[in-house]
């Protein structure tokens, strides 16, 4: 059974390259507004950067849910449906994607309103930083449903093997944010509150513009999966929710991990909180590369699974994972030796830059293991083998969480950094070994 997907039996290397390049470009473009936001806010000082750093894990969580967890599930279901030649099922997946986006966006808004102030107050002892973080979040999150729709509808396109139009949506998001941020974010002479308010409005407006474009692409006659409300099936929605929620549990653990590390490094003061936060923002470069290649894997691997050729799908998955590990590992080694190439771009305060550089020297060499675990997670979206990626995320979280009990302001900073590095190594090893010896065994 060959299915109807053009991805099946196409030459693998050219096909993966054709999909991965626009996939990586699109994912990078999607992530750049967050990096640019830090660049705009650095003139407002460490307090503005620290305030946004407190909220940033929650924004990342929305991205992980909508693009990675539920978005990956959507891409996998679309790819398998097209691989099996089932257009009706693909249409039903699209309807489910819209429904999940609407509910997910509203739910995340409610969570931020209810729990956000407690998280900020726990992570920082600066009243101004806490107040600014709360103001930033409550300004941005009423528009977070637009962000969900951008990512989920783009995931439908990726499941069809279309990486170009999601990249165009991402470019529109970036371009509109650049224009809006330059207008709405005041210079360094303004208050911290005014700076973060402008940043939130610029990001929200950019989400709305990108959402409008991706809806146009979904409705375009050239799009192979049509939106038909009559195609909706509650049973399919439950299947997507089961896989998406399992994947989301990894996303939650990843964000809790980020919050735990934020709390740990906040014990060393605002400069370290801001500096480590700038180092962590490198994930905005790493994750898009991993995700871009991983999204091409989901489309290709899912099509093979839908066509009943699972062993071939597993072999393709390992090849894509190898590419990701090599690329991200090389980036990590480079940044470990030359951390200033990053930290001086996103930071202006000398103490913050020093903290960022010290973080990268210890943590960056472990990026290959992070890429290994996350790539396996993405391929598992197509193969429905998410248990081991979730276990790996839990192991990483538990290792870092031990630092909540023994790291104090008297503990050397390198102890905290090596804890983070060791957790990353454990994550990659647990996930890859579990899959290789378990559901991906030949």
The dominant shape is: globular
| Strands, total number | 0
Strand content: under 5%
* Tally of individual helices: 17
SSE order? HHHHHHHHHHHHHHHHH
Largest sheet: none
Proportion of helical residues: over 70%
First CA to last CA: what distance? 21 Å
Output the structural class: mainly alpha
> Could you report the average pLDDT, rounded to the nearest whole number?
88
Low-confidence stretches: none
Report the radius of gyration as a whole number of Å: 21 Å
Give an overview in words.
82% of the residues lie in helices and 0% in strands. It is globular. Helix 13 (350-363) runs parallel beside helix 17. The chain has 17 helices and no strands. The longest helix has 38 residues, at 46-83. With 442 residues, the chain is mainly alpha-helical. The chain has helices spanning 12-41, 46-83, 87-123, 127-140, 144-159, 164-184, 192-219, 234-266, 270-280, 283-306, 310-337, 340-346, 350-363, 367-383, 387-401, 403-406, 413-437.
Write the layout of secondary structure elements.
Blueprint: H1 12-41, H2 46-83, H3 87-123, H4 127-140, H5 144-159, H6 164-184, H7 192-219, H8 234-266, H9 270-280, H10 283-306, H11 310-337, H12 340-346, H13 350-363, H14 367-383, H15 387-401, H16 403-406, H17 413-437
Helix pairs in contact: 1-6, 1-7, 1-10, 2-3, 2-4, 2-5, 2-7, 2-8, 2-9, 2-10, 2-14, 3-4, 3-5, 3-8, 4-7, 5-7, 6-7, 8-9, 8-15, 9-13, 10-11, 10-14, 11-13, 11-14, 12-13, 13-17, 14-15, 14-17, 15-17
């Amino acid at each position: 059974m060959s299915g109807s997907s053009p991805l099946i039996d196409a030459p693998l290397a050219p096909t993966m390259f054709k999909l991965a390049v626009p996939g990586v470009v699109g994912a990078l473009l999607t992530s750049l507004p967050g990096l640019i936001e830090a660049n705009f806010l650095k003139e407002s000082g460490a307090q503005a950067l620290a305030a946004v750093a407190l909220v940033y894990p929650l924004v990342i969580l929305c991205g992980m849910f909508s693009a990675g967890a539920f978005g990956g599930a959507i891409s996998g279901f679309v790819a398998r449906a097209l691989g099996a030649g089932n257009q009706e099922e693909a249409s039903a997946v699209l309807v489910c994607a819209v429904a999940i986006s609407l509910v997910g966006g509203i739910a995340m808004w409610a969570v931020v309103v209810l729990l956000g102030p407690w998280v900020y107050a726990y992570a920082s002892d600066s009243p101004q930083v806490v107040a600014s973080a709360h103001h930033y979040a409550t300004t941005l999150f009423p528009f977070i449903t637009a962000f969900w729709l951008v990512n989920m509808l783009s995931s439908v396109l990726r499941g069809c093997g279309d990486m170009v139009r999601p990249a165009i949506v991402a470019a529109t998001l970036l371009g509109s944010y650049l224009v809006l941020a330059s207008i709405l974010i005041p210079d360094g002479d303004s208050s911290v509150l005014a700076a973060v308010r402008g940043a939130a409005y610029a990001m929200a407006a950019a989400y709305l513009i990108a959402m409008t474009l991706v809806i146009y692409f979904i409705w375009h006659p050239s799009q192979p999966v049509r939106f038909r409300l009559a195609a909706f099936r509650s049973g399919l929605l439950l299947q997507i929710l089961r896989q998406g929620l399992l994947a989301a549990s990894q996303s939650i653990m990843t964000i809790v991990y980020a919050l735990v590390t934020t709390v740990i490094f906040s014990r060393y003061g605002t400069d370290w909180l801001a500096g480590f936060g700038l180092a962590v923002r490198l994930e905005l470069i790493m994750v898009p590369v991993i995700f871009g290649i991983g999204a091409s894997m989901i489309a290709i691997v899912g099509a093979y699974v839908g066509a009943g050729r699972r062993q071939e799908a597993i072999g393709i998955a390992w090849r894509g994972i190898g590419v990701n590990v090599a690329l991200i590992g090389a980036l990590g080694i480079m940044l470990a030796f030359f951390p200033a190439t990053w930290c001086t771009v996103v930071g202006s305060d000398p103490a913050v830059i020093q903290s960022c550089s010290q973080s990268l020297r210890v943590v960056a060499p472990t990026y290959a293991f992070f890429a290994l675990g996350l790539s396996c997670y993405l391929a598992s979206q197509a193969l429905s083998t998410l248990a081991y990626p979730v276990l790996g995320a839990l192991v990483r979280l538990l290792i870092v969480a031990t630092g909540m009990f023994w790291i104090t302001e008297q503990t050397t900073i390198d102890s905290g950094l090596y804890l983070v590095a060791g957790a990353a190594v454990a994550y990659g090893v647990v996930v890859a070994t579990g899959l290789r010896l378990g559901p991906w065994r030949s």
